[in-house]
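MODEL INPUT / OUTPUT PAIR
PAIR INDEX: 1
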Amino acid sequence: MPTDPLRRKLIAIRLAESIGKGVFLSGSVVYFTLRVGLDAKQVGLGLSAAGLSAFVSSVLFGVIADRVGARRLLIVLFTTLAVGFGLYTLVGSAAQFYALVVAVGFIEYGTGPTNGALVGNLVPADERVKLKAMMRSVFNIGFSIGIGVAAVAALSQRLLVLIPLTTAALMVGAALLVTRLPDAPSRPVPVGFKRFAAVRDPRFLAVIGVSTILASHVSVILVTMPLWALNRTTLPHFLVPLLLIFNTVFVILFQVRASRGADTVAGAGRLARRSGYWLAGGCLVIALTALEDNVALACVAIVAGVLILSVAEVMQAASGWGLAFGLAPEHAQGEYLGAFDLHVITQNIVGPAVLSGLVITFGFWGWLGIALAALAASALIVPVAHRSQVTLEPEPAPATSR
């Protein structure tokens, strides 16, 4: 943990936010089905629609953060989220649920790039990746605490209302913590700079596209591996949730260490390349279970595969922060960070269906295909990152200011 007050406040904000998200994400299905009376398809459709809104909100709020200031916008976002989560207690129909869940999701996905822009504005460039690594470790701790709170609330029908109310209270707490941060100095905007430049830059979009493949560990660990283990192997079912807990603990313990050397574009590119090797290795190890149906082989291969994929995860996450901060002009941190977040958003939405479909349909060859895609992305990430970096124009003399 950092010793200076500024970084401690930033981490405290992340902790409050993560506990709230842990409470709601782990308890929302229970809340909406048992208390509101929605069926599983309605809940799934609403949550998917909320996820799709991220494609717009992530970039949009990044641009707004650059325009009005990340600190001011983050206060507004957390306060609005507190109201939104509180309104879940009044939802009584599917139509009300759809409208509110999409609105809340749209606002929620804007907090990521805004928070990143705040870090970029307040913390020196060579310290941003390490701080983000600390914040991710803290996020996993807070999310786990939130799951525990949701589990307690689910013990009783009357206590279910605590799921949205607790999340709303934590969003208020996060907003109050943001008010205690200093204002970042305004950054001059170069003459001729056009908003939404990040999503119109094909070289930057290429970095996002390659990073989307390298982020496949998200879908593989959370969805593809569990589905494969439960449906196509003889692995004891109780091991699956234990492996996910192991992955969470691994990230908490090693995310900061894995971020070393990722504070430059060149270093982040090399780390991303290595993460692809680990991702391919993890998939190939799990693929061994398709060759022989054996309990011992399944246990050893899948446990080893999750360990290898966990290494890929912490490496790729750290490299992503290094690339995002390194390729973002100082005057457009929010916009570029919001655009770079699209690689995780895309993976979260598309990855589970595509990757799970591959391995369930084609077995060993499906796992091999994912591994080959990871190796191809590893070969591409360094050159595409370098090409994107050289397109960044040097900061000209200040022309206009926000």
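PAIR INDEX: 2
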Amino acid sequence: MAEMLSLMQEEAVRFCAELIRIDSTNTGDPASTGDGETRCAELIRDWLSELPSEWFERVPGRGNLVVSIPGKDPQLPRLAIHAHTDVVPADPVKWSVDPFAGEIRDGRVWGRGAVDMKDMIGMLVAAVRQTLREGHRPRRGIVLLFVADEEVEGANGMGFLVDEHPEVFRGVNEAIGEVGGFSVPTPTGDAYTIGIAEKGIAWATLRATGTEGHGSMVPNLEGAPARLVAALQRISEHEWPEEVDATASAVLTGLGSVLGVHVDPRDESGFAQALAPLGPVAGMFSNAFRTTAAITQVHAGSKTNTVPGEAIATVDCRIAPGRDEEFRRVFAELVGPGIEVTWETGQSVVAPYDTALVASMRAAVQAVQPDAQFLPFLTGGATDAKSLDRLGIACYGFVPLRLPPGFDFPGAFHGIDESVPVDALRTGSLILREFLLSQ
């Protein structure tokens, strides 16, 4: 058995590296997004060729692979485990390594997608192959989804499957994906996160119009840029309150337990001090309890001496769970009259923590690391869970990685020189195997 488990761990590392070597960049522009997602999915299909699979492709080159693991009891609800094959762009000039070489050195696998999220695909595929070698068949059916287009909007990936092929999810009531499962350092050892919620997303485009004319003649009160800047100032200066609902309370209770201190996000200085032992991942918790609104783009005019008749800005808003409607009301007040606002949105997602599925995740981790602690996690990111939530599926983040102290995990997401520790992949594959054996 030890030799078989060693093979599984080696496969997890190798599969992650091989996937990184496929440039599956999703630029958001059909003209510059290639066929990397399809090539990744085809490779995964080869690795899991013993299992039945289906292929869905809304746009050529952007394939989605659905693999089924039949369960012993077809009456039981099925579980979905999903991961995306696309990655964000990487400028090789800014990297110290080739972002698509999948280089393995210094105890890490380097390249775009190493943590977002070809690490999960490598570990999951290796763990599934190992359970097949052991002859295991789960009690309930498991659906593995390897999808395109998560990094932009999911219209060619999970959103496409949910809207056009809901039969794929027949009988599925729970799902596992990103973000969660990673370990954080605490004074008493590693605590593994389990994602139970993600903030709502609202991308606002503000369009102001006004008088167009010579810069010496058009007063600011009539000019589109001045109107837009005033609205952006109100938005940037607004202090969104800390929101402590049932989900936030669960996360705060968990933080207090693993850190051994009282944790209150309404005490700004004390909150930062309490989270300090978490190291680089502290920021992933500190912004979880309030709505945020970040100005990301401003466009207006073409000449210094001409007031343009239109000015446009975008604002990336992340909404505390359950506050979607309240956010819209307050944001409209901040924008004020005379500015058109259009939206791209995704509701907040929340799943219960006290469930049998969460218990099986915890048991899988402790089978590999008996002293592990656990921490419910609320992410500010947006994932394919937003599409699955439309079907009433409870979504959890569980990509198990035992991270070394000081590892800048949040900085790896979409960052320069993205990498994942080899040991984290090896340990994660063991945890996922234990999880699969428990289903």
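PAIR 2 NOTE: The chain has two domains: 2-197+349-437, 200-252+287-346.
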